[in-house]
Design goal:
This protein has helices at about 45-55, 85-105, 115-140, 165-180; strands at about 35-40, 65-80, 145-160. The chain has about 190 residues and is of the alpha+beta class.
Amino acid sequence: MERSARPTEVVPVTSPFANPNRPGVPPRLPTPPTGWPIGSYATYEEAQRAVDFLALEDFPVQDVTIVGVDLMLVERVTGKLSWGRVLMTGAASGAWFGLFVGLLLTLFSPEPGVTIGPVLTGLITGVFFGLVFAAVGYGSARGKRDFQSASQLVAGRYDVLCHPKSAEKGRDLLAKLAMRPVNPGN
């Protein structure tokens, strides 16, 4: 067999790790932020307001990054747990899941229309397993965590970074913003 003497064509292979620095596409792997600081704010809302202001002033906001600095995990306690609360929550979540499964079973039922049998079976089974799993989970903790909470990742401050080519203009614009009064409606 004879082969033609064509140049070999190079076809790029795509993978989650290929081309991590494509313009306009955020990197897929964690990378440290780059750029010069043009503003620092106590809350994310203030940093967001600064970037919104830059966008209104036709600043190239694609060159801007908001970076949370001094990250903290804040866990706010929302209530005390008791056997009653745990079992009620388990029964409720089990009921929702059981109702969902029961409704799915009616889709495959040979009888036309919604029949109550699969729905009730799913509901009762869901409540039972919800109670069992909640009781086992709470009982295995043995009083080590008798409270409910909600966790949130927050930062001590939020820095606005900008590409060096636009940093000076960005600082000047944010200085104008700092001199304006804060309007809750804006």
